[in-house]
Structures are given as structure tokens and as C-alpha cells.
């Protein structure tokens, strides 16, 4: 079922809650792939009803970013979401989400300033704002997000904690293609050759993971390994960041403590695409 009106979505969710349902929410920007579908499938296993939202949020795109050309196919999204177990697809219009006079913005604080925040200023303000709106519109008990957007999961968890949303957050692993490339709606921007070259990202993550498991704890050495693996494998890639950080806080100590968790974060440009990926490693 498709719902486009905000008031109708709120009424539907209210009715579902009154009937004792557990509502799962999977927020997306549409052009669904197996990564999104994995979130919807898990939500369908864990909740009695599932709302998938499809909304390309202009607030989280910079002026020179790909908002206008971001791929869209609502009919196909409805089909895929329903097959995966969504009860409702909520797809509001930009005009209804941000009517004339709209002004309120949520600032997630310092966690939004690093990495993505440096290259996409304002991005996480847009994300936090739209997610807060979607929470208020869909009234979920549980909200599902992908590890693919690692820093985003930290921002959302800060949002839920600080603003007292009565919502449980679930983060599910990144779904990859057989050669390791993380599924992304933006992969359609890659030419066949670039699609091939993009596999270096996962290989760089694996190299760095291996080094950490072998005992490397010095952050600069890990960063250099990530960077060199990408540059040697594909000189056409422009690295925005390739960095190891403390998983919970994104701090960047000189050495990672034994027993701590490290996140390896990548953001690169390849052709007209901007790709991100990450992986989590336990320090032995
Ligand atoms: P997006 O449509 O790109 O905004 O993504 C919507 C949700 O799906 C976010 O929580 C993403 O982290 C998640 N997601 C995107 N790609 C993947 C993937 N390859 N594996 C798992 N989750 C993903």
C-alpha cells in the first residue's frame, strides 16, 4: 500500500499502535536494492507492520550535489518493498515535507562535524531533521538503518538519545555484491570500467582489517595502508578520506587501545560518483 499524505500516515500508524502492533520503520531515499530489502526483511521478521519511507531529502544535499539526478523509480520501489515485507510505502512530496515557511533544523552536534561533515557541510543536519520528521510521522517502535552509512548511524543514535525518541534503533550489516562492492543506489553512476575499479575499496578495507588483526594499532600506519592500497589499485580514484577512528566516538588517537573497536571509513570520488564504505574491526 502507498501512502503519500502526512496526515494519513500519522492516522494509520496511530491506528496500528492502538491495535497493539509493533511498527518497524525503514527510511530510504528509494531506488531500492538488496541492501534496503535486507533491512525491510529483518523489520518484517521483528515487527508486526513495516513502513518503508521513500523520500529523496533535498535538505541533506549540498548545492553542487546530485539531488536532481539522484535515481528515482517509485513504482519499482513499491514492488520491491512489498515483496520484502513492507506493509506500507510512505512517499511524501518535497512540498508537503517542507512547505513554504518551513524553518526548523536539528543540529546533531560534534559527531556530525567530522569525516562526512567536512566534505558535506550541513549533510547531517538535513539527515537528522528528516529522520526526526519521519519518526513523528510514522511513530515507529523500531527503526532500521544500514552500517553502510556508518557515521549516519552514530548521528541517529545521538538524535534518539538526546531528543528522547521512544524508539529502538537497529543497525544491520552492509550488503555487498560478490566482488565486495557495497550496494548503493549511487552505483548506477559508475561506468562498467569504474564499476570494476570500485572493488578496490573493499580490498583496501580488508587489507587494513588484516593489518589490525595482525597487531597494527598505530592510526597513521593504518591510514597510510588504506590510502596506498586505493592509490596503487586505482589512480583514477580521488580520496576524500581514508581513515581509522574509534568506532563509538570517531576520535582519532595515535594508537588504538587493545580490546577497542576501530571503524575504517572511506569516501572517494570515481568518475561522477561519490562512494562511501566502512568496516568495523576489533583490536586484538
Ligand atoms: P539510502 O536510500 O541510501 O538513504 O539508504 C537507506 C538505508 O539503507 C540507510 O539506513 C542505509 O544505510 C541503508 N543501506 C544502503 N545501502 C546499504 C547496503 N549496501 N547494505 C545495508 N544497508 C544499506
Structural account:
With 284 residues, the protein is α/β, with parallel strands linked by helices. The chain folds into two domains: 2-172, Rossmann fold (3-Layer(aba) Sandwich), CATH 3.40.50; 188-279, Pantoate--beta-alanine Ligase, Chain: A,domain 2 (2-Layer Sandwich), CATH 3.30.1300.10. The protein is 38% helix and 20% strand. Strands 1-4-3-2-5-6 form a six-stranded parallel beta sheet, with helices on both faces. The chain has a three-stranded antiparallel beta sheet with strand order 7-8-9, covered by helices on one side. The protein is globular and about 55 Å long. The model has no long low-confidence stretch (mean pLDDT 98). The structure holds adenosine monophosphate (AMP). Adenosine monophosphate is lined by residues 28-29, 35-36, 38-39, 145-146, 148-149, 174-175, 182-185.
